Amino acid sequence: MTIQMKNISKVFETETMDTYALKEIDLNIYAGDYVSISGPSGCGKSTLLSLLGLLDTATAGTYWLDGIDVTQLSLDDAATMRNRKIGFIFQSFNLIDELSVFDNVALPLRYSDMKSTRTDIENRVKECLELVGITHRSSHKPNQLSGGQQQRVAIARALVANPAILLIDEPTGNLDSKSGDQVMGVLEKLNEQGTTLCMVTHDPRYSDLARTRLQLLDGEFLNVPEAGQPV
Ligand code: ADP
Ligand code: ADP
């Protein structure tokens, strides 16, 4: 199992009140699964994604990522774990304008503590560009590409270090519907080839594509996750 959360709660304490963003949730995601998380604004989607991505820590509960209890990790160890195990895709593509498509995708490997040779990096980047269908744009800069193309570059960058799971936040939020469909097509193809996906989306057309569809309301799952039957 790639992800196992047990009794995870997240409380934001402010001077005036405590907000229970997540209330004792359980979540299992199996390797190869395609999970969508939807729900109204304020229901806890971003909070859950930050916890899953080790960008924030839970107030209570246990979270195992690839079998490791990450609730006990130091900040440094959590960062290492994040770089090795997790790929992120956001609504805004977060590419570096000064770098070519190729160099944007190569970046996680060049900065990784897992030393790769130049040839290894080159081959892996080419493979990922191929997977998202953007090889013909390798030497372009991000601002020379359409939004859909930029998002495909961001997907290639998220994939390049072979993460255990891709965490995806509203991937089509900045795209017209045609580019959005294209990006979702790429994600679907990756999942068919074995990549584990966990995606937050408002768009019912896209959440319906997932195998395991979860709905959050006020920090709790509406449909108790028989989440992630083994696939
Ligand atoms: P969603 O992504 O579904 O819109 P969030 O996870 O952003 O929901 O928020 C869940 C709840 O937690 C909301 O009530 C929100 O106001 C609250 N919340 C989120 N982040 C913070 C924070 N840093 N401080 C205080 N409250 C927060
Ligand atoms: P192509 O290989 O023709 O660029 P893609 O599938 O990579 O096709 O691009 C998706 C869509 O984006 C196509 O409809 C293409 O015409 C359009 N497109 C390509 N380049 C740009 C650009 N620089 N700015 C805006 N749209 C573009």
TrEMBL record:
CDD domains in UniProt: ABC_MJ0796_LolCDE_FtsE (cd03255)
Cell membrane in keyword set: no
GO MF term (any one): transmembrane transporter activity
Domain ABC transporter: 3-231
Keyword presence, Transit peptide: no
InterPro entries: AAA+_ATPase (IPR003593), ABC_transporter-like_ATP-bd (IPR003439), ABC_transporter-like_CS (IPR017871), ABC_transpr_LolD-like (IPR015854), MacB-like_ATP-bd (IPR017911), P-loop_NTPase (IPR027417)
Name listed for the protein in its UniProt record: ABC transporter ATP-binding protein
Cellular component annotations (GO), alphabetically ordered: plasma membrane; transmembrane transporter complex
SMART domains in UniProt: AAA
Keywords in alphabetical order: ATP-binding, Nucleotide-binding, Transport
Annotated family: Belongs to the ABC transporter superfamily. Macrolide exporter (TC 3.A.1.122) family.
Source species: Cellvibrio polysaccharolyticus
